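Q: What would this chain look like folded?
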Amino acid sequence: MKGPQTCSCTPPSTPGCRLWPLLWGKKGNGKFPPTARRAWEVSWALPGVWGGLRRALSLPPAPSWMEACLSEELPPPTELEESLRNGVILAKLGHCFAPTVVPLKKIYDREQMRYKAAGLHFRHTDNINYWRDAMSHVGLPLIFHPETTDIYDKKNMPRVVYCIHALSLYLFKLGLAPQIQDLYGKVDFTEEEIDNMQRELEKYGLQLPTFSKIGGILANELSGDEAAVHAAVLAINEAVDRGVAAQTMAALRNPSAMLLDLREGLAGAYQEMLRRAKLEKGSNARNRGEDIYDRCLTQAEIQGNINKANVHGALEEVDDALERQDAPALFRALQDPVLALRCLRRDNLDRYLEQLSTDREQKALELGYVDLLEQEEVEAGILAVNKKDEEERAMLRAVSQINAAIHRGVLAETVEALMDPAARLPDVYPLAAPLYQHQLALLQRQHPRGELVQEELFVAVEMLSAVALVNRALDAGDPDGLWSSLVSPALGLSGVEDANTQRYFEDLLQLKRQSRGAGAEFLSWNDIQDSVNTTNSSVQNENARVLAVRLINEALVQPDPEKTLAALLLPAAALPDVALPTAWRYHDVLARARSLKAQATEDDGAELWWEEIQEGVCRANQDTVAARRSECSPRCGCWVLVPLTWEGGFCCRGEVRRGST
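A: My prediction, written as structure tokens:
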């Protein structure tokens, strides 16, 4: 009994397609007869084909190839078929080889959040159509394209699998993607499945095609004499086996081989690349039929490996220019068509050199040795530089518009220009439009060139926005919001004390009322800083006065007038007209006042307040003046020199008058 065999079928759908005779044999006139169409429909309807090709999707080559292209992990094989239905993976794949046709921003539900939450949506079909458009853009024959419903409704998933494998080989030929492993020998059908399908096809005189024919199909898609192409390709394979680079190069140059972009200087690289590819293909061949391409490289595979060698050679030129820090040589290397670098800008050449040199050094640190940057890494560096350049150009345009708006003096225009994201400025609050306009216009007039640059605008707007938040918190009566704004690094105030939070709010609120009464709608940064300084000074003086009052009260409980006088003379006490000769009187008057207060409050620990101490000092001074008038001779007239200061206290005869007790 025959064991499991390997095969698949192709999805031709276009009558008269040039690939038809290559798929189904050389007989006939190349037209798509009704009987053949029926055979096609029947073959794809057979359960065995469905099962076998679905198993192809779970094999490593297809998922691994897609993961290599996308640089991301795909769902496990058991879930991959279902995951393809929303088209996100396919659209991302289209972006890899046709980014202009499928920009990432056009992909619907790119992170698949909606799909995971609610399942398929009709807009997911857009993703599938983007993938089809990308394949058309690069020229993959329509014969391989599945219909949208084949994927979205799972009507023909085997056709999708076949298309992915055909696409991979086609992109490899164009140098747009890595190579995929051949499926021949890896898609197993049971004997019954093969026999059922074979019987249906034999009714129409047709034969089963195989997966390994995909390479042949694409090779035969080339124009020209097919026999000549076949002979030239076999000659190349023979030259590769001989191992002489010059002979291989001569075979490659045969016009009948229809190979593109051959480079004489890379003959050795071509020989080595093709030798390895041929060995790998031969080692993978098992239980093959009589098809010569089971072990020989096809035209598409040869072209693909030539492209790989060309890319590697171009990357070596790039690496050499980076090693020598030679900007002109780097630009020439980057312009090599095989690298397919879009949007190279000579103005950014120095930046390209800097960026790619940094990327090269970083890669060497990660690997532990110096290695070539891959094509994708070079492209990523170029795109990063271009993006930064575009952002800087947009920023300069936005800054120019801001300066023009400030010159015009229209508040709404100024705020709108400041809020342009391209300007890369901090948050702007429209409620403070007059503040921005006034302060920025002032800075603009003071600037030597009359124009503010982005860095100056950034610092100014950051500070003005912080000032706006302070004013907003005051208007809203929000102490917590005010505190958050006062300690913001953007505001940049000095000397802000946590303990004074409530006092800041009260003092600034009072200052704002005064400013508004004077016609100023907003407190300025200077107003806020001055208020904070004043509040800090006031609180500091008050705290010092409290300490001085405590020391005075402590001195009053001791029988030492000199200690009382020393406490009264403390600068923090801020008591006027304290005189040295009156120390005894100060102590007596204040001690008596403290005793009376303790009796009145029934609190032995009662202390005098600053106002009460001030009142006692005044009364003691008055008593001293009265005593001086009565004791001193009227003829000396010294009584007219009162009130005394601590520096005085002597009559004209030099006698000390302490007053009466």
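The chain has a mean pLDDT of 79.
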